[in-house]
Design goal:
Length: 315
């Protein structure tokens, strides 16, 4: 019988292996170089971000402290009269501080529940075909410039408020709260949708298997599981509400009064924008001091909410 076994190669043992080794090793070296380069890039970007925050903080402190020292911290924070161009200038920003706090709080009270319920509807109750459309609509709202919200507010909402409550003018704190609540909705809804979709389906199915209803499973299980992300969305909404300027200056009346729900008011941000173009001397320094107070205000809110998030995560 003819031997059908394959003939053994006369080449030395392992001769074919080294032919592939250079390509493999070069690929590993290239991959290692890319990883090191990306690590360097990420490190530089991180350091640059920290340096930018530090530079902004130092600039705000250096620019804002001179006016506070000259005016007096107590008089500056608790004064109720803002008359920087008067013969005897007065630089009290308490009305603007209270207006900013109440306006932001009102916007969150209105916008946060509405944003949460909208996200729940899109994730769990809307038809499959409608979910993509509604998500795109929310993203479109997030991209609309703030001045457009202001134009809609001043042409539609302000006259409606004036007519409904029989007011001479609809430019008020109430109108500002409604506009801010609408503006922060896209941020809250988008982040909440992402957080709810990240919750494992097994949580919802397990809750149903234990006898809970669909609504109970959503609100008692899924929303609690996504609590951290939902709070993050609310924090981002607070940041936008506090820092908003163009829309608010068009619907608030821009008059320095103590907060009145249906009266003209001025926020901290609008106070800076409306007067910076012609301010000089102590007046200009006082506007930088307002910016410093606003910066510290936002920083304190972020610290408080971050602490709440960490506490909730530990629990």
């Amino acid at each position: 019988m003819t031997d059908t076994k394959p003939a053994l190669s006369s080449a030395p043992k392992g001769q074919g292996v080294p032919e592939r080794t250079p390509s493999l090793s070069s690929a590993k070296r290239a991959k290692g170089i890319i990883e090191r380069v990306m690590n360097i890039i990420f490190f530089v970007c991180g350091v640059a971000s920290v340096l930018c925050v530090a530079a902004i903080t130092i600039y705000m402190v250096v620019s804002g402290l001179p006016a506070i020292r000259e005016i007096g911290l107590w008089d500056f924070l608790t004064g109720t009269v803002w008359a920087p161009t008067a013969e005897n200038p007065q630089f009290g920003i308490l009305p603007m501080i209270l207006t900013t706090i109440l306006g932001t709080f009102g916007a969150i009270v209105v916008g946060a529940p509405l944003g949460l319920f909208t996200a729940v509807f899109i994730c769990y109750l809307a038809p499959k075909k409608a979910q993509a459309f509604l998500t795109s609509a929310v993203e479109l709202l997030a991209g609309i410039p703030s001045v457009i919200y202001g134009l809609v507010g001043i042409t539609v909402l302000s006259p409606l408020v004036a007519k409904t409550f029989d007011l001479p003018s609809g430019a008020s704190l109430f109108t500002s709260i409604i506009v801010l609540a609408i503006m922060i909705l896209p941020t809250i809804v988008s982040v909440t949708i992402t957080s709810l979709r990240a919750v494992p389906q097994e949580y919802y199915d397990g809750s149903l298997a234990l006898g809970a209803t669909s609504m109970t499973s959503i609100f008692k299980m899924n929303i609690r599981a996504a609590k951290s992300g939902i709070i993050t969305g609310i924090v981002l909404g607070i940041g936008r509400a506090i820092g908003e300027t163009m829309a608010i200056i068009m619907v608030s009346g821009n008059v320095v009064n103590m907060p009145n729900l249906f009266g003209s008011v001025r926020f901290l941000t609008t106070g800076i924008v409306s007067e910076m173009s012609y301010a000089s001397g102590l007046h200009r320094e006082a506007l930088f001091s307002i910016g410093l107070i606003l910066f510290l205000f936002i920083f304190a809110i972020n610290l408080i909410l971050t602490g709440i998030l960490k506490k909730g995560a530990k629990q």
